[in-house]
Amino acid sequence: MRSLAFATLVLAGSVQAALAAGAAPPLPAAAAPCANCHGTDGRHQGAIPAIAGRPAPLLADTLRRFRADAVPDATVMPRLVKGLTETEIDQVAAYFSTIR
């Protein structure tokens, strides 16, 4: 569990460093399916919710709930997150949470 927390901190730090330098943060490979609907910056306008800047624990919890089929009326999300590991969920959450 410590290595997972450390990996999340390292990813969040690299995203913050990229943002501070004015560069686009690196999109984790696990976030590629997210970008199709939410956009690479997580700021999609319209019916699909924006996820940029939301707290990482909230995003990670939501992804885990989708993966467990615990979100009523969910359509595509449970299928998209079924194959994500715990680490990948934390990486995706860290990525989108640091975008302002």
Structure report:
The chain has 100 residues and is mostly helical. It has one domain (2-97): Cytochrome Bc1 Complex, Chain D, domain 2 (Orthogonal Bundle), CATH 1.10.760. Helix content is 55%, strand content 0%. The chain is built from five helices and no strands. α1 (2-20) runs parallel beside α5 and α3 packs across α5. The longest helix is centred in the N-terminal third of the chain and has 19 residues, at 2-20. The model has no long low-confidence stretch (mean pLDDT 83).
Principal-axis shape equals globular
pLDDT averaged over residues: 83
Superfamily (CATH H level) name: Cytochrome c-like domain
CATH class: Mainly Alpha
* CATH fold group: Cytochrome Bc1 Complex, Chain D, domain 2
Q: State the low-pLDDT regions, or none.
A: none
Number of strands: 0
Helicity level: 55-70%
